[in-house]
Amino acid sequence: MIFDDALKKALQALPAKEKDKLILRLLKKDLNLANQLYFELVNTDSIEDKRNEVYTHIQKRMAVVSERFFSMGYLLMDVRDASGIITEHVKITKDKHGDIELNCYLLYQVLLLNEQHFGTQSYQSSYTMCIYIIARIYKILILIKKQHEDLHLEFKDSVVQIGRMVGDIPYLMKTAINNGLDVNWLLSFKIPDNIETHVKDLRANGFLK
User: Contact 199/138 with Cβ under 8 angstroms?
Assistant: First the structure.
């Protein structure tokens, strides 16, 4: 539907009570927008408060699922769920900085608590988990490049740490090499300027799947 000037004028001309009813009806159908408005207009928590809540959720969730590890498939389901929590947080708070920090923290927790599990199953059984991690690393690098250059160094320690951890897990190194990710980019914290184009080309050629 096209929101032309005539519709805008008609909406503006509605009585206040009618506007309120219409807004409430629309918000019931868009929970993300409702949560975003609640955060902006009602909630007294800061973005940092909300970000810390997600940190705590990730830490607790990964600790439990890693201790009760059953398979890479089940681990991946929980990692995706935690990733969804991050996505929801970013949609509600527009926390671009937290998007990077929280994704780095999620990968750090997954690798820290499950390094030994990558060697207990076949590469085929671990592949989907490995490709998910490599794709997530690419996402982090792209998000960092979109930040102002003055902010890049704030993420250096996290990126370097993830690079070291990937280097210690043969399955992940194999997946990184096969999908065009040079781990030295992470270790030296030198992200290519064309990283987003690089990823698009990889996907167009059937990689990262």
Answer: yes
